[in-house]
Amino acid sequence: MEMLIAFLILFLLLGFILIQILKLKTTSSSNLPSYPLIGSTLSFNKNRHRLLQWYTDLLRKSPSQTITVDHLLRRRTIITANPENVEHILKTNFYNFPKGKPFTDLLGDLLGGGIFNSDGELWSSQRKLASHEFTMRSLREFTFEILREEVKNRLVPVLSSAADGGRTVDFQEVLKRFAFDVVCKVSLGWDPDCLDLTRPVPDLVNAFDVAAAISARRATEPVQAVWKLKRLLNVGSERKLREAIRTVHESVSEIIRAKKKILEIGGDVSDKKDLLSRFLAAGHDEEAVRDSVISFIMAGRDTTSAAMTWLFWLLSENNDVEEKILEEVRNKRSLGLGFEDLREMSYTKACLCEAMRLYPPVAWDSKHAANNDVLPDGTRVRRGDKVTYFPYGMGRMEKVWGQDWDEFKPDRWFEEEPNYGTKPVLKSVSSFKFPVFQAGPRVCIGREMAFLQMKYVVGSVLSRFEIIPVCNNRPVFIPLLTAHMAGGLKVKIKRR
User: Fold this and answer.
1) C-alpha span between 86 and 84 (Å, rounded)
2) 396 burial class (0-12, 13-18, 19+ CB within 10 angstroms)?
3) Given Cys at both, which of 72, 227, 378, 470 links 41, Cβ 3.0 to 4.6 Å?
4) Rounded to whole angstroms, how far apart are CA atoms 213 and 151?
5) How confident is residue 84, by pLDDT bands cut at 50, 70 and 90?
6) In a domain, 225, yes or no
7) Predicted confidence band at 89 (pLDDT cuts at 50, 70, 90)?
8) pTM score, two decimals?
9) What is the CA radius of gyration of the chain?
10) pLDDT tens for residues 156-192?
């Protein structure tokens, strides 16, 4: 009986303390409720299902376009949509803002020590090697040949078949399969043939999808110990993740071993054009090469397809913009666009930039402060703080893009009206205002290759087909590691 009474007293005492804590609510300049000990955990949990809009609303209210979210049992998160802060994080004080162990832990099981999940010397050495390869004309020409073959022999026939049969297709899925074929051919020299819609996609594709989705959800756990305990016990989502990662690693390792045999017996020059062959030829060990090519596949598989999916939907809502792209493409060799044609397609590039401003392939990216710091807007950063710059929110800030931020206006990417008879000139927009390809030392080395691919696909598709969405509802943006359109983009295809 005494034990029971003691327990009840303790329970009531803890309840009283909790009530007092909740009464001590504090409110930041962004009206984000915060309490002693538990911080903003209650608000975070309440808004977990709508973090993008919640963060954006709070940032709009913040005079500095920066907010601080305090968490239970982990370091606070600083989220910013302020271009000056972004420049400080990604360039000015770059070495104070590495990805950090909390971030690399999230993706470490999948990406290992690959370039997109590493810091310091490990990152620097991979960056130098990759930068060298990506500036090689031979890789650019190899990529362009793959792109041309994939469009001509697979993408166009798939869309032609859908048009002739009057079938509804998920255009997002088609573009994802296309992008996966291209990135695997460029990175691995391996053809998964995903655009053969008569058969299931390879296990590697599904494994990538599962691994990316579950790894992304780790970051939204209010208490990080939860997913770590599940991983330790090998239960639930963490068990599925482990199985998916095993499939990814084993599949890629098998491709690497086969490639090594080809190189060892003196394969011809064509066997040495893909990134995998180049990395192996440079003498890197199998695990390091595996991590590197997995990182490149993760970076290239869904980013371009996501950007194009949103652009095609936006064009269906803005016929005048679509007509301008068609006019630009008609002035080129629309059935066989070459390097020079693509370089001159400035209006198509502006449309892609505008689509990514509103629907960035990567909605947010985080670093972790190595030491105390102060951001340009006066926000104090403590060592270990998670510091997140937020492209999705930045594209929706009136202070950054003006009162018409919510309008799809490709013309905002051009200088003032051109003089009579001159071509419009794209503005030089700061990558810290538009950080969809990151910025500073970590700026995406495949940026120009991505634009090359997207312009080629957009031009090739629009010159042949009308893409007509069958649903009138506004699509939903889902972030994860790479953003996508919830439920896909269901369309009818009509020949022009």
Assistant:
1) 5
2) buried
3) 72
4) 28
5) very high
6) yes
7) very high
8) 0.88
9) 24
10) 999 999 999 999 999 999 999 999 999 999 999 999 9
Structure tokens at 191: 């053809």
Show the domain range for 174.
120-495
Residue 105 within any structural domain of the chain: no
Over the stretch 456-470, which tens digit does the pLDDT of each residue have?
A: 999 999 999 999 999
Average predicted confidence (pLDDT) for the chain: 86
What interhelical angle do 203-218 and 286-301 show, nearest 10?
80
Count CB atoms within 10 A of the CB of residue 429: 12
- pLDDT of 272 strictly over 80: no
- Tokens encoding 410: 């490709």
> What total of structural domains would you count in the chain?
1
Strands 386-389 vs 74-80: parallel, antiparallel or unpaired: parallel
State pLDDT tens for residues 387-433. 999 999 999 999 999 999 999 999 999 986 555 456 778 999 999 99
The β-bridge partners of 77 are 69, 386
Looking up residue 373, the CATH number of its domain turns out to be: 1.10.630.10
User: Does the annotation flag 444 for ligand binding?
Assistant: yes
Classify residue 94: in a domain, yes or no. Answer: no
- Taking residue 404's Cβ as centre, other Cβ atoms within 10 Å add up to 10
Examine residue 451 and state whether it is found in any structural domain, yes or no.
yes
